[in-house]
Input
Amino acid sequence: MGYIKKQFYCQNDFCWYIRSANVDDARELIKYYNFVAGETDYLNFGKDEFNISLEKEEEYIQDIFNDDTSIILIALMDNEIVGSLQLISYLRNRLSQNAELSISVKKQYWNKGIGSSLLEQAIDFARKADLKNIFLGVREDNFKAIRLYQKFGFHICGCRKHFFYINKEYYDEILMQLTLK
Output
């Protein structure tokens, strides 16, 4: 099961916890995704573009929860979602040792350690799930995120030219990989 119990973190006077998402979080996750998409152009979708029904999101979360090699994590402060991470493994046997990672944190909580704690939990989960590779994509000018991923051992393994088209400008997607031992 893609499940992690509450893990508490504090940095200075700032505290949060991380746990696995469950179906009861679906409504708040939809709100969260639409909110963070309005704060930055670094995500794959814009403000209010996370158009999924509550039922579909609940079904998706339950499917991930029941998968031993995939997980959705949420970071919370005062029961408010302030960060989210998805580590989704491939279903096909030939690719099942690999997973795709996506992560977001509310802008007011950037540089507080939430992203690092989410990544730490996800990588630990991936090792226990016997995954071999974690892949992610990041916009070429998201330097803070690239440095964060490199801090955790990710390396650049490719580029998709003009992958993003935002505000009439094209941006490349940097592809990154972490190989787990």
Remarks:
- The longest strand covers residues 155-166.
